[in-house]
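Query structure, 184 tokens:
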């Protein structure tokens, strides 16, 4: 399987703590290889993540190296929260962009030091605490189809989860998103 994750340097800060950008290799693995690698590491999936992993964007493609950062909504200039269109616009104003839709599993495999979520609630109809949402363009306009992935650790269990929302949902100010630093 093609290597996934950061540059491999052990002393390099990770995305998880909001430190230096993470160099991430996305693509090159088949859907089956991704499933196997996630299972091998004990990463749990919800139904939304399973649905997303079946999308054609997970057909094997050439690997691409991305620079990924995380930003809270206040860091994006949205101290009271915002909708997905507002978040995307605020990110673009700072020179950041959505990630490719297949980034979520690769990012989950790369981030091994994510902090434990402050609560154990897995599904509550709101953005979960302690999560890093992977901002991507939606794969479907259907609001019942998952919009993207988020990463979370709950009660010691590492998760890759899919989330649903519409463009009217106001994300809380404490939401954290993973974003792409475009090539210069």
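Result returned for the query:
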């Amino acid at each position: 399987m093609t290597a996934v994750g950061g540059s491999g340097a052990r002393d390099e800060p990770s995305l998880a703590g909001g430190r230096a950008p993470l160099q991430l290799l996305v693509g090159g693995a088949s859907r089956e290889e991704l499933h196997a690698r996630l299972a091998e590491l004990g990463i749990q999936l919800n139904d939304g993540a399973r649905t997303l992993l079946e999308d054609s964007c997970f057909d094997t493609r050439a690997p691409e190296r991305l620079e990924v950062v995380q930003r809270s909504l206040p860091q994006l200039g949205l101290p009271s929260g915002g909708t997905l269109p507002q978040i995307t616009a605020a990110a673009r104003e700072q020179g950041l962009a959505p990630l490719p839709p297949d980034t979520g599993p690769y990012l989950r495999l790369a981030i091994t030091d994510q902090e434990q979520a402050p609560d154990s609630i897995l599904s509550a109809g709101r953005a979960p605490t302690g999560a890093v949402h992977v901002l991507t363009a939606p794969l479907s306009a259907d609001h019942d189809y998952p919009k993207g992935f988020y990463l979370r650790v709950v009660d010691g269990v590492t998760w890759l989860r899919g989330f649903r929302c519409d463009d009217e949902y106001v994300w809380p100010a404490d939401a954290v998103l993973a974003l792409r630093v475009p090539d210069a």
